[in-house]
Specification:
The structure is a homodimer. Chain A has twelve helices and 18 strands. The first copy, chain A, is an alpha/beta fold and about 400 residues long. The two termini of chain A are about 40 Å apart. Chains A and B meet through helix 1, helix 2, helix 3 and strand 3 of A and helix 1, helix 2 and helix 3 of B.
C-alpha cells in the first residue's frame, strides 16, 4: 500500500448514460477499478440512472399540480442514491472495497434554496476516512444537505459541480468527467464532419463554448474548476480515448488563438424600435422579464441617433411569446415607437483566448459568413468570443464556413 | 388552533398497496387529510410503493452476486423516500401542510446491523417541531440511521415496527395500520367463508395469530405495541370499516376464550428416532441448524422410554432438504437409530387468551379434528394456543372444522 504522502487522488464523475443500466454500471465499475489498481486513490460521483429523474418528476406531477420544492428534492435525491449504491455493490463484487455516500454522509453542505441550492462548504472528513480505510467512496452527485439536515438538489449541472467541488475540497490531481462524448471539439461533430477533438482548452474558452451550445459540461462546474484550479478531464466512459483537459493555459501567444466554433439554433429575437435614449429605459424593459424568470441572452443596443435608438435582445424560442407579451405594453410607456420580433434565429460564435489582443479575427469571421452568403443580424463580442446572430436555416453552413476559415481541422 | 395540551395524536402507517400508485397515494392523502381536519395531530409512516423494493433488489442482483449489506440498505431506503415525498406533495396539493422526513431526519436511531437493524432510540424533536408548526410529518418506515450517519433498514415487518415505535415515542393515542385487509379475522377468510372480523384482540393473541400465518402484521410490531402499551388499529385503506383494535384486554373471563384459528401450510418435519436420553443431545442437533440460519419452528420430544426417545421438529418447506442434510451425519454420532422426514404438512392452531385456565379446549380441538377424519401428527401448546401438525392436504378442512367447533362465526 502506498504511504499517505505518496497517494495521488483522482475524482471521477459518471453521468446518467454511464450508469444507465446494470450492465453500464458494471462496465463503469471496471474503469474505476482500473484506476484504483493503477495505484490512485479514487473518489467517484454519480448521476441518477438514465431517465430516473424524469420518471420521478412524472410521478410528482401525478400527485401534485405544483410539487413542493422541498419535497421535490427529497424525491429526486433518491435517483443518485440508487446509482451510487449499485456502483458500490458492483465494485465490491469485483473485489474492490467501496462505500456509497449520500450528500449528507459526504458532508456536502448547501444553502436552503431547494431545487437550486448552492454548495456552501464541503466537510470531507468522512470521504477521507473511507479513503484512509482503503475504500472507494461513491458520492451521490447533484445533492447536498442543509444545516437542518434537509436534503437539497443543486440544480442544472449539479453532478458536474459536485464532482469539481469534491475534487477541490480534497485537493485532487484532477477531476474526470466520464460522459457519452469523447471530449470537446472545435465544433459540433454532427454539423462539421471534420471537427477535431481538442487535447486542451482553457476554462474561459470552455465557458464560452459550453454556454453557447456545446453542452458537454455545465458552466457552473467549469467556473468552480477555474476558481479552485482543478484540472477537468472530459472523456468518454465508452472508450479509452484521452479526452480533453480543461485547465489553466498560460502560453496563450504560442498557440492558435481560435479554439472552436459554437452555435445554438434555439434563438428568438425581440427588437424595440425608437427607444428614447434616457436613464431607466433598459431597466423598465428588462425588470418584468427578470420577474417572470425569462432568461435573456444577447442584448444589443446601437449608438443613439437623434436621441433614439433600437434595442434588441434574444431569448429561447420557448419563451419568445411570453417575453413579447410582457414587453409589448411597455413600448408606449417608455415612448418607443414600436416592437417587432422574429423566431428561427441562431447564433454562431468564434471562441479563443487572446483573440481580442490579436487583430483581424472579427473581419475574418464576417468575411467568411459573407462568402457563404449569410446575412448577419446582430453582433456581440466578449474578450474571447465574437458572436453573430443569423438565420437558423443557415446555421450549419455558417459553422462549417467558420470552421474552414479558421483552419480548425488542422492541428 | 388547538392548544398544545388539548392535542390528540394519531400515527398512521400506509403499507405498500396503500401507496402503490399515484392514484392510491392521492386517495390515502385524502384519508390523512380527513383525520387532520377532524382536529387530530397526525404523523404518517409509509412503506415503499408496491413492488419497488423487489425491483431494487433485482437491480442489486444484476450488479452483484452477493450484494453488500450496507449498500443494500443505502439502496432500499430510497423506496420509502419516494413514497414519503410523494405523499407529502399530495397533501400539500390539497392544501394541507406536510413534510416528508427520512429515518435520519426523523431521528430514528438503530444498531449497525445492516438489513436487520434494531431501533435503539427515537429522537422525536424534529417530528414534534413539524407538528408544532402545523405540518403533517410523513416519516419513511422501515429505516433508521446509525450514530455514524449510515442508513439502515430494520428487516421484516419494519414499516409496522417504525409506526409503533414512533407512536410510542410521541405518546400517540393509537397507531393505525392501514393495509389491504379490513382487520383480523377468526380464521383466514379465503379458507373459511364465514370467518368473522374481530373488533378487539389482545397483543398476546395477535402474536400467536400473526406468527402462525395470519400475516397481517409482523410480530415485532405487536410486541413493541405491547411493551409500550400502544393500541394498534388494523384497518383497510380502501374502506371505512372500523378494523380490529389490538390492545390490552383485562376482562379475560367475561369473553369467549377462543379468538381465532391460525394455520400455515408451509411445514416440513424431520424426526430423529431412538435418541439416547442424555444431556447435550438436543444441542448437538440444533446448533448446526442455528449456525446455518435455519429457522426451526415446532420442536416435540416425547417422554423417554427405555432411555430412548423420538425428537421431531418442523422447518419451512424451502429449508427442508438443507436441514435434513445437516442433521443426517449427527444421527450416528449421538447414538440415535435413524432419521425420517416428510414435507406436505400443515399446522393449525386454536388461539385465545386464558384458554389454558379453562379446561376442555384441547379435547374439543382433537374431537373436532377426529370428527373430520383428520389424523394428528404432532401436538404442541403454549399458554394461549394449541397447535396440531397435520397433513397439508387436510388443512382447509381442519380450519373449517375448528372454526365451527368453537362457534367462531357467532359474536
Amino acid at each position: 500500500m502506498a504511504t499517505q504522502g505518496a497517494r495521488r487522488l483522482i475524482v471521477q464523475k459518471y453521468g446518467g448514460t454511464s450508469v444507465g443500466s446494470a450492465e453500464r454500471i458494471t462496465r463503469s465499475a471496471e474503469r474505476i477499478a482500473a484506476v484504483a489498481d493503477a495505484g490512485y486513490d479514487v473518489v467517484v460521483t454519480v448521476s441518477a440512472m438514465g431517465k430516473t429523474t424524469d420518471e420521478l418528476i412524472g410521478l410528482a406531477r401525478q400527485v401534485s399540480r405544483d410539487p413542493d420544492d422541498r419535497e421535490m428534492d427529497q424525491l429526486l435525491v433518491t435517483g443518485e442514491q440508487v446509482s451510487a449504491s449499485l456502483m458500490a455493490m458492483a465494485l465490491i463484487d469485483r473485489g474492490q472495497q467501496a462505500v456509497s455516500l449520500t450528500g449528507a454522509q459526504a458532508g456536502i453542505r448547501t444553502t436552503r434554496l431547494f431545487t437550486k441550492a448552492r454548495i456552501t462548504d464541503i466537510h470531507p472528513e468522512r470521504i477521507r476516512r473511507e479513503l484512509d480505510d482503503g475504500r472507494i467512496p461513491i458520492v451521490t452527485g447533484f445533492q447536498g444537505i442543509t444545516e437542518d439536515l434537509d436534503v437539497t438538489t443543486i440544480g442544472r449541472g449539479g453532478s458536474d459541480t459536485s464532482a469539481v467541488a469534491i475534487a477541490a475540497a480534497l485537493g485532487a490531481e484532477r477531476c474526470e468527467i466520464l460522459t457519452d462524448v469523447e471530449g470537446i471539439y472545435t465544433a459540433d461533430p454532427r454539423v462539421v464532419p471534420n471537427a477535431r477533438k481538442l487535447n486542451q482548452i482553457s476554462y474561459e474558452e470552455m465557458l464560452e463554448l459550453a454556454s453557447l451550445g456545446a453542452r458537454v459540461m455545465h458552466p457552473r462546474a467549469v467556473e468552480l474548476g477555474e476558481v479552485y484550479g482543478v484540472p477537468i478531464l472530459v472523456r468518454s466512459s465508452f472508450s479509452d480515448a484521452p479526452g480533453t483537459l480543461i485547465t489553466r493555459i498560460e502560453d496563450v501567444e504560442v498557440r492558435k488563438n481560435v479554439r472552436g466554433i459554437a452555435h445554438d439554433t434555439d434563438v428568438a429575437k425581440i427588437r424595440i424600435v425608437g427607444v428614447p435614449d434616457r436613464p431607466g429605459v433598459a431597466a423598465a424593459i428588462f425588470m418584468p422579464l427578470a420577474d417572470a424568470a425569462i432568461s435573456v441572452d444577447t442584448i444589443v443596443q446601437n449608438t443613439s441617433l437623434d436621441g433614439k435608438t433600437d434595442l434588441s435582445f434574444t431569448v429561447s424560442r420557448a419563451e419568445h411569446s411570453r417575453a413579447a407579451a410582457l414587453v409589448e405594453p411597455i413600448v408606449p410607456s417608455i415612448g418607443a415607437s414600436g416592437l417587432d420580433h422574429s423566431e428561427d434565429l441562431a447564433k454562431v460564435s468564434v471562441v479563443g483566448t487572446g483573440m481580442q489582443s490579436a487583430p483581424g479575427y472579427a473581419a475574418r469571421m464576417f468575411r467568411a459568413l459573407a462568402g457563404a452568403g449569410i446575412n448577419i443580424d446582430m453582433i456581440t463580442t466578449s474578450d474571447i468570443r465574437i458572436t453573430c446572430i443569423i438565420s437558423a436555416s443557415q446555421a450549419d453552413e455558417a459553422v462549417n464556413a467558420l470552421h474552414a476559415a479558421f483552419e480548425l481541422d488542422q492541428e
